[in-house]
Amino acid sequence: MRAVTIAILCGAWLSCLIPADAIADDAGAYSTRPIQVIVPFGAGGNSDTIARVLQRAIADHQLLPQPLVILNVPGAGGTIGSRRALNASPDGDTLLFLHEGIITASYSGAATWGWRDFEPIAATGRNGGVIAVAEDSRFQGIEDLLAAAAEIPGTLTFATNIGAPAHFWAMQLEDARAGARFRYVQSGGGAARFHSLKGGHVEATAFSVAEFLSYRDGGLRALAILSEIRDPALPEVPTAREQGIEVIASNLQCWWAPKDTPAERLTLIGDALKQVMETPEFQKFASEQQIEPLFLSGPELTDELAQREAVIAAIAPRDIPGLPDVPLALAILSGLVGIGVLFARPAPRKLIQQGQVRDRTLLIRRTVTLVFATIFYAGLLAVSDSSLFAFFTFFFLTGIGNLLMMPRQPSWREGIAFVGFAGLMAYGLPWVFETVFGISMP
Amino acid sequence: MNPELFTPEILGLIALGTLLGIVVGAIPGLTGAMLIALTLPLTFSMNGDAALALLVAMYVGSVSGGLITATLLKMPGTPASVITTLDGYPMASGGRPGRALGLGIGASLIGGVISWGFLVLLARPAATWSTKLAPFDLFALVLVALVSIAAISERERGGLWRGLFAALIGCLAVMPGLHPATGEPRLTFGLVEMSDGFKLLPVLIGLFAFNQIIQDSLRPAEKGIETPSGKSDRIWLPLRDWLKQSVNLIRSSVIGTLIGILPGIGANVGSTVAYGAARSVSDKPEKFGTGCDEGIVASEAANNATVGGALIPLIALGIPGSVIDAVLLGAFVIHGLQPGPLLFKNHPETVHMISGSFFVANGVMFVMMILTARGLVRLSRVPLAWLAPPVIVFCIVGSYALANRMFDVWVMIGFGIFGFIMNRLRLPLAPFVIGFVLAPLAEENLSAGLMASGGSWAPLVTRPFALICVLIAVVAAGISIRRAARMPD
Q1: What is the average pLDDT across B20-24?
Q2: Is B64 left (phi over 0), alpha (psi -120 to 50) or beta?
């Protein structure tokens, strides 16, 4: 009854075409389409939390005609996500929420694009920086620390996250005190830097104020805060300036749009962001998270960014000497061991363990078709609009399952049952994924 | 705002996870690693603790479920229960399927509970102690782990070389991306998408889910094995039978736990070693393999004990003990949790949730298996037509959902095909994955160590802990090379 199955499938596929087209047309209209905000870090991180608080408050107060949707595109220090925003069409439907990492990435070589390749919309907050040591450290102030770093340059160990703002803060400190040179030790994120400090493997490191507050009870002491004035959460910690070190550094949280996005869209979103920062929800969140609720937009913001860029550009990242070429070493080693494997005469596993010759060709044929169908299916998803997901999935499920994998020709009943199952999966999955699990579909 | 363990929501998730784990464990074409890798993307929007409770329950269920088909059909549902077939199937086909299942299920529970005890006792001290480890110490520790994977690989001629080779290409496969210390892109072949390298989740989904479907598709439909139909004997065994096994239970569980702690060595090795130990101390070793109680108990107590053992280095140091632990490590990272001492300080509720859900899942597993064991056998006959297409769709959506980009889907498909080729060449997958997970850890620590020492390798031999690790690695490598050389053709 293979013909029967094909007939059922053709009918079902044709009926699918109609709603799919209707959806595709509908999505073209601007007024109903949500604005996608790319957060180039994982869900649950600092940037993601801020973006989601702002998104919720904008929705609650109906500050924008369309809803904002957060899309997490993590990876490579934020450059994977910023690249996607860079290439998005400049219609105001795609925005980027990224802090100063956008400037540091272009100066550390991680990205070939910089902040000038985007339209800055607004800055919605600032995180201060803290220089910290272990509780029992010999250093009492920032001047102490820098004097030691200048005494024998390049021996005082400083845990850092190379390319990230914390790294540039430390380099600003070096610039402020003649002759001071730290020995940078790559540790990674805040938790990793805390470990290095706590375990006594490095002598100093930099944290954001929020990070410092969450680790303080673990046995840390702040030497200086890198803001203009003392932080209300850490009133006992003097600023670097008070101690005679002229360094002001912080991390600015910014909203960006692709280059050439119409100015009226930028103003609309900028105004919404300005209003949302005055809501009690955001004020409460900002004070809990130690974010300074600073709002900047327009020329003010551009000036501030240019100023920050100038500071970062003035500090040239130094090469890190003496690191082995691990990939090369591994390639050589695996080449040698590979020769060992050849000598041990590996007998390739039989493709099919048991079964008749007729079975064998059939199984190989269906497996090859399965793999190619999967590649084809993924290819379709990659080039198509997301509203077609259910349609392609149905196509795939019925095709692979019913035509390829059924051990024998299915009966009418089995065919209908399977098509029903495939339809349920294809149209149920997007609903389950998007509404229940909050995952956006390809 | 973190959920408590004893709420309907969490207990429901644990029950669901255990059940799903048992089901995939019982179906020969599906594995626990596949289930957990495919479930992880679904937990993105969940609370991290709830997600971990669900995944740990799946882990427990999947290691246990394999014993059903291993015992009744001589088809191990998971590699962990291969050894169980040796005595389980003869006993079941000899007319006592209930007793065989009862022994396996009970031993699984006790193995799990004993290893839970170790988890609760050891995890915190291990985590506290780990802060004292300098980058070079950690590098040396990872080196020991890498050598031990290769040393334990397949016990056949050339197994050592193939294990080592698989581990090395696993290390190589993770090299593209950003340099761990300087942050510069390397080996990206000019593709910007590659600057983040290959992520663990799509690689795992490819190797363990998509590859598995390809393998299953090549396997002819099983026929001819019938469920043994002896007189219906009871699954529930009298206490006196268990007392007779008490020494065996404790020994096998301790062996399983210790082997679980060693990185890269899965549950199947735990059960093999425990089975060997039980046979060598037995006064009737000739009974092993003919359907004796001791064999089933040793195998099943040990394979469940490896689960708790493997969670210890995962929570304390962030070093995964098995393939499934590598997925769990991914779950930690995705939910913004960093395993290690800070987890005990900043998120004690997460640690309690993991150990608590591990304990509860073992209990739930016991009850569910006792009630459903006989019925679950039928599941092993679900045709591929109903399984393969949805699994592939899940593979694609799951890989995409990780970072909302199609690139990861292509990585998943590529590694699926790659895994298939590895399998054909008899290259084991587990060392590959462990190499893939451990290489960045090794390189980060080596770089940090070299940066702190100003480029000197001396701390590797001047720091006592690092020196001990290096010596262990050298000795272990020497022993396994000698054993490999002596092995007959």
Answers
A1: 88
A2: alpha
Look at residue A391 and tell me whether its pLDDT is greater than 50: yes
Flag whether residue A71 sits within 8 Å of chain B, measured between CB atoms. Answer: yes
Using a CB-CB distance cutoff of 8 angstroms, which residues of chain B are in contact with residue A352? Answer: 218-220
The answer to whether A50 faces chain B, any CB pair under 8 Å, is no
If one compares B405 and B460, the residue with the highest pLDDT of the two is B460
Question: What does the alpha-carbon distance between residue A432 and residue A333 come to, in Å, rounded to a whole number?
Answer: 47
Distances in Å between the alpha carbon of B278 and those of A166, B251, B271? Answer: 56, 8, 10
Percent of chain A residues past pLDDT 90, beyond the cut: 8
State residue B141's pLDDT score. 83
Q: Where in chain A is the domain with CATH 3.40.190.10?
A: 127-249
Which value, to the nearest 10 degrees, does the dihedral of the CA atoms of residues B2, B321, B120, A187 take?
A: -60
Q: What percent of chain B has pLDDT over 90?
A: 20
Which pLDDT score is estimated for A117? 85
A127-249 placed in CATH 3.40.190.10: yes
Q: How many angstroms away from the CA of B79 is the closest CA of chain A?
A: 17
C-alpha–C-alpha distance, residues A319 and A163, integer Å: 12
Q: Which DSSP state fits A435?
A: I
| Predicted pLDDT of residue A30 | 45
The ipTM (two decimal places) reads 0.79
CB A95 within 8 A of CB A168: no
Q: At CA A40, angle to CA A34 and CA A46, rounded to 5?
A: 100
Identify the burial level of A221 via C-beta atoms within 10 angstroms of its C-beta, where 0-12 means exposed, 13-18 middle and 19 or more buried: middle
The CATH number of domain A34-126+251-314 is 3.40.190.150: yes
**Backbone φ, ψ for residue A114 (5° rounding):** -130, -170
- Average confidence score pLDDT of chain B: 83
Q: How many helices (H) and strands (E) does chain B have?
A: 21, 2
Other beta carbons within 10 angstroms of residue B426's beta carbon come to 18
Contact in structure between A215 and A232 (CB atoms under 8 Å): no
- Average pLDDT score, chain A: 79
- For residue A235, the SS3 value is coil
Residue ranges, CATH 3.40.190.150, chain A: 34-126+251-314
**What is residue A120's three-state secondary structure?**
strand
Q: Which residue is it, tokens 């990939």?
A: A327
B389 and A109 in contact by Cβ < 8 A? Answer: no
pLDDT 10s digits, A72-99: 777 667 777 888 888 877 777 888 888 8
